[in-house]
Amino acid sequence: MNTRINTAISALMLLVAFFLLSSFCRLDECNDNSIVGKWAAVTTEEYNSSNVLQSKETPQGSYWEISEKTITVRDKNDELDGVPLSYSMKDKTIILDKLSLTYTVRELTESKLVVQSSQLGDMYVVITFKKVK
Question: For strand 84-90 and strand 93-96, is the pairing parallel, antiparallel, or unpaired?
Fold first, then answer.
């Protein structure tokens, strides 16, 4: 997986975490920590600007650790591995503060999270996660 896709996946995971926290309640009032924890990447799909699927991968050992304030990507093939990234949330958009990268939450349940990256040149990435117990 190339660096651009790994960075998009990492950023996407962070955005999803923030969306979950802010969509249900304010962070300082939230008693439901359902998104805080580990989200394992199940599939990563890369699409071109015409919305045509270009590749689909099953990442091995890639996950996001989400706290109330940061998202940490865990993937030995990603340059952001182990780096906690602060994020903010607006509507269903996760904004990675220092990366100028956003993710839109497409689906969120107690056990599943699907996010879509902002356009990265001529492509975008959709990542599906499952919550790790």
Answer: antiparallel
